[in-house]
Design brief:
- The chain is built from 8 helices and 7 strands; from the N terminus they run ααααααβαββββββα.
- The chain is an alpha+beta fold and 254 residues long.
- The protein has 2 domains: 46 residues, no CATH class; 151 residues, Phosphorylase Kinase, domain 1 (2-Layer Sandwich).
- The chain has a 7-stranded antiparallel beta sheet, with helices on both faces.
- A hairpin with a 2-residue loop joins strand 2 and strand 3.
- Helix 1 packs across helix 2.
- The two termini are 28 Å apart.
């Protein structure tokens, strides 16, 4: 185990989230590495300080009043004119549906909704204890963990040697269904790779978008949809996706 792999797992060791085998590996590395031993000492002191600190804070009444004042006011009951306008808009939508235009609008809305859900899932995972259900840098440990939990297990590729450390996986929920999330790290940046089965086997080239300050790289291939979400820069997230796709192609050809 090298320093990069150990640093990823130090917090999990302190929180008691590692299995016995990985805990021994990290402890053995820390015992022989001054750098990681110093990090472990700092993390322990930080945890102790947070546990002893009085972090409870009651917001003043004035702050509550200011927040309530800034909230949107209740919407007024619609007038007869606005109802008629809405009816006319509905007729226009029906006309567009007859020409097939509405299908494009719904697909765009669906894409935006799913992207919003994967970003929300990414944010949830960053809370303490939510990042992984199985912690391992070994793809042969992570991939079998998904067996039986999903209709199709997500592919798990070890990209540690290429700068993206595999740290584990978990089950998550997007679009009201369970999907797999394979978790990587680039330095201190978490990358969640969400993988879901799709009816289409047609490949869709990768697209990069940004939502709530997070970059999303989405692509489809061989009946699977992929969303890589991270606060990494778009160029590094694209690099991750390119290396993942290249490794997947090599595995299939091999």
């Amino acid at each position: 185990m090298n320093c990069e792999e150990a640093e990823v797992l130090l917090h999990a060791l302190l929180d008691g989230e590692l299995d016995a085998g990985h805990a021994r590996e990290v402890e053995a590395h820390v015992a022989g590495c001054a750098h990681c031993a110093a990090l472990m000492k700092d993390y322990r002191e930080m945890s102790a300080a947070l546990a002893d600190a009085n972090l409870h804070y009651k917001a003043p009444l004035e702050l509550r009043k200011r927040i309530e004042k800034s909230l949107p006011q209740p919407v007024a009951t619609p007038s007869r004119r606005s109802l008629l306008r809405g009816f006319a808009m509905g007729s226009a939508v029906s006309a567009m549906a007859a020409t097939g235009l509405i299908a494009v609008v719904l697909r765009n809305d669906d894409t935006q909704r799913i992207q919003s859900e994967v970003v929300s899932a990414h944010l949830r995972s960053l809370q303490a204890g939510h990042l992984t259900d199985v912690i391992s840098t070994d793809q042969h440990t992570v991939k079998p963990w998904f067996n039986g939990k999903l209709d199709v297990s997500p592919p798990v590729i070890d990209l540690t040697s290429q700068g993206f450390t595999l740290i584990g996986g978990r089950l998550d929920y997007v679009d009201t269904r369970a999907i797999g999330a394979v978790v990587y790290k680039r330095r201190q940046h978490v990358i969640n790779l969400f993988v879901a089965q799709t009816a289409s086997t047609e490949r869709q080239a990768a697209k990069i978008s940004t939502l709530q300050g997070f970059n999303i790289r989405r692509w489809s291939d061989h009946g699977m949809n992929y969303w890589a979400v991270s606060d990494l820069g778009a160029d590094e997230l694209s690099e991750f996706g390119d290396k993942f796709e290249t490794a997947m192609k090599a595995n299939k050809e091999g």
